[in-house]
Amino acid sequence: MRALVTGGNRYIGRDLVFVLAELGHEVTVINSHESPLPQGAKRIHADRREPGAFEAALSDHRDDYDVIFDNTAYTPANVQPMVDLFRGRVQHYVFTSALAVYRREFLSLPVTEDYPRFSPDITDRRLGYNVGKVQCEDLLMAEFSASGFPATCFRMGHSMGPRCPVPKREPFFFARFDAGRPILIPGEGWPIVQFLHINDAARCMASTIGNERAKGEIYNMSGADYASSADVVRIMGRAAGVEAQLVHVPMERARKQQPRLLHWGEAFSGSVVMSIDKTREHLGWEPNFNLENGFRDAHQWWQREGRDQFDIDFSADDALLAELES
Fold first, then answer.
1. Looking at residue 81, what is its pLDDT?
2. Tell me: the pLDDT tens digits for 265-286?
3. Are the C-beta atoms of residues 193 and 264 closer than 8 Å to each other?
4. Would you tell me which of 7, 126, 181, 259 could form a disulfide with 72, CB atoms 3.0–4.6 Å apart?
5. N-terminal to C-terminal alpha carbon distance within the chain
6. How many Cβ atoms are within 10 Å of 253's Cβ, its own excluded?
7. 3-class SS letters over 91-106
8. pLDDT < 50 regions, the chain
């Protein structure tokens, strides 16, 4: 198959590009920054943040791809031009959505794909990412119903793995482990959180190719195991070869701290576990990484090259520790 991947230059998309190549597919990426590519892969330069850039770059390539993996779309304004360009021309369009579409009003766990989402009409800017993904899903499912546009949406949970670009994720913890510093966590750290390794995500998305059953479907995509917030930090420490030191911050105080003590919202709003039963059944996919070997893989990257890419600021930690000790 001839595959087009949006992004594909640093994190999940980069793993996807290499997984697709290993499976024998012809790969083209469209992005704004160069990065290593598999032998034979092609690249189109375009910055999606510039209005009309993707449409201009792809207008002469509308018949060149069988499947599109869209990892960098956040609003309907990103998705609609792709639908217009490739309607009737591609066999599959795979969209990366997120756990963030679900409202945190769970009466029971795990969260299945039919759980309530945020309303697409919400205008609160603080929920812009959440609502944008909801709107993109709605657009694609409406297109599937109206014209058979072959869309599949993946609601991805929290990610882990090499090349993390966000300082508040693995780099936040690994830098503190390096410095022998404690990790401050909200309350007792009981809420449960779940993670997905980026290579498992890439394999899951790739499994849609040639799968007619996946068209017009929405799937949860996350890891098979999970743990309390406190235990996730301990598992990260074990993966890094240290014993994590935890400092419990009273929840009332933790909610006021900026930047947030932990990047996953479950630490503040309560446990979330996503069901991946439908994904397993329809796609025949199974995660390869659990929490410990996934974070170990991330830490090996940190040791090789990651720590040189970040300048982590501990001043907020120091101020809060001093406050707690006073």
1. 96
2. 999 999 999 999 999 999 999 9
3. yes
4. 7
5. 63
6. 14
7. CEEEEEEEHHHECCCC
8. none
